[in-house]
């Protein structure tokens, strides 16, 4: 149970929240056809690559 609490605490930081909000906003805009799917893929791929890249960098140090 303690390990679960630690993992949840790690998820609640600014970078994670911004990542999830940004992906959610672009998903909603794409579903409403407010922006094209190509634009969504570019932004979401960039954000996810940045997020996981920085997570991998933390683990490597």
Q: Can you give a write-up of this model?
A:
The chain is an all-alpha fold and 61 residues long. The protein has one domain (2-60). It has 3 helices and no strands. It has helices spanning 2-11, 14-31, 37-60. The longest helix is centred in the last third of the chain and has 24 residues, at 37-60. It starts with a helix and ends with a helix.
Question: Helix tally?
Answer: 3
Sequence stretches where pLDDT stays below 50 over 5 or more residues: none
Distance between the termini: 27 Å
Q: Which overall shape is indicated by the principal axes computed on the Cα atoms?
A: elongated
Please tell me the overall pLDDT: 78
Total beta strand runs: 0
Could you describe the largest sheet, including whether it forms a barrel? none
Percent in strands:
under 5%
H/E order of the elements? Answer: HHH
Amount of helix: over 70%
Domains, number: 1
Radius of gyration: 14 Å
Q: Which class do the helix and strand fractions yield?
A: mainly alpha
Write the layout of secondary structure elements.
Elements: H1 2-11, H2 14-31, H3 37-60
Question: Can you summarize this structure?
Answer:
With 61 residues, the chain is an all-alpha fold. The protein is built from three helices and no strands.
Give a quick set of tags describing it.
elongated, mainly alpha, single chain, 61 residues
